[in-house]
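Session log. Operator J.P. requested a structure for one protein chain; no other inputs attached. Running the standard single-chain path with token output.
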Amino acid sequence: MKRFHVHAHVEDLAASVAFYSKLFGLPPTRLEGDYAKWMIEDPRINFAISTRGGTPGVDHLGIQTDSPEELAAMASAAQSCGLGTHDTGETTCCYARSDKHWLVDPQGIAWEHFHTMDTIEVFSEAAAAPKAAGACCIPAVEGHGSKQAAAACC
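Structure written below.
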């Protein structure tokens, strides 16, 4: 089964956590000093916010899979349709170890397809993960330009 993912950049994490906790009727599943995530079951959504990134608003969208096989099937389907994907493979970002690939739509909206294998204690295990960096590693995908795709990577 898959789960829809939305990651938004916010300026005031505490105010946003309070708002979304009331909206969703539950506290975050994970809360850090710069990040919060709700794993909601109805509807199935992974909703995350962070103070990492530029302009407040939606940072990227995505689909989280429950298995590596679902992720491989999504990559295969995207490639067979001629959609340019950027496979980042196993990486660490957003307090998680995941296998992922990215697509960017014609409007420049980044889409992340990923399977999370584990949680980690830091935002990213990359040696340099400055607070000003984008919420996640959104690479440039051939054929599509994006302000988000050009953002710094975690």
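Operator note: Confidence is low (pLDDT under 50) at residues 128-134, 141-154.
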